[in-house]
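Quick one, T. Sequence first:
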Amino acid sequence: MNISGTSLPAVSGSGQGRELYSAALSKKQQLADGAAALALIEGAAQSSSAQTPAKSVTASLGNNVNIYV
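Structure tokens:
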């Protein structure tokens, strides 16, 4: 039995036909989810390599503490 996303083979039993249709829809959804996940990973990898490192910023407040005993 060959299941493809574009065309479904004819099945005589209505229960089998529904199962086959459900399996084909599930496969299409899994492929779409996988493609979206790969695109997200690739986008994250590109944006992190394109960013410049942040300059270290030190605040002047609180650097010197005067303690009197």
